[in-house]
Amino acid sequence: xxxxxxxxxxxxxSSEQILDTAGLAxxxxxxxxxxxxxxxxxxxxxxxxAILNLCAAGFVLLSLTVAFNLSSAIIQxxxxxxxxxxxxxxxxxxxxxxxxxxxxxxxxxVFPDMPRAIARRFLNQGNWIDAEEGAxxxxxxxxxxxxxxxxxxxxxxxxxxxxxxxxxxGLMGEMNVLTGGPASASVQVVSPARLLMISGxxxxxxxxxxxxxxxxxxxxxxxxTGRKLxxxxxxxxxxxxxxx
Length: 244
Prior knowledge:
Elements: H1 2-38, H2 47-63, H3 70-96, H4 101-110, H5 116-123, E1 126-131, E2 136-138, E3 146-159, E4 162-167, E5 170-172, E6 186-199, H6 200-209, H7 211-235
Antiparallel strand pairs: 1-6, 2-6, 3-4, 3-5, 3-6
Helix pairs in contact: 1-2, 2-3, 6-7
């Protein structure tokens, strides 16, 4: 009899510990997700943030079975409902968003971490154009008014009257397009090229309205600049322009 009673007490104690631990886990998830959001490591419109909040509310609600509190329980229930609705909304938006093959290639190369809805809004600001040989996209010393993405073809980079490189894919104008500062080099089309052109003024307006977009845009542009610099360094010694 005493053993049964002791066993029941241990089982109750163990269950209470588990539920208390669940509550603490929920608090950690609440605080951790909010800290990551404020640190810019999570986006408020991401699946990860919604799922973390859903789990946090679920754990806290579970812990309330030990010491029930109506106000707290109501908060957790509504937090779960809001998180579920947020996840459903993201699924619905992402299923509606479609990209062309050119757009997919651009996103995979330059903005692989950009959410589909944000990427669609970004790409909608631009126009795909075909540039003929000899066309000048950027002029050294003049304000950068457009961001270009080269999907096909080749362009030469000219600085101080000297050819310093050839590009066959990637961004152009990314270093100063958000400030409207002067181009550090001229960019001239070498062979017929397929490009996406986006107005710098449009990008600045988007970046001002959406801080998440600005971070994603700047990260993508920085990666692309770094990639081009590494390629330029490998070709720096004995550079010769390929045949057109």
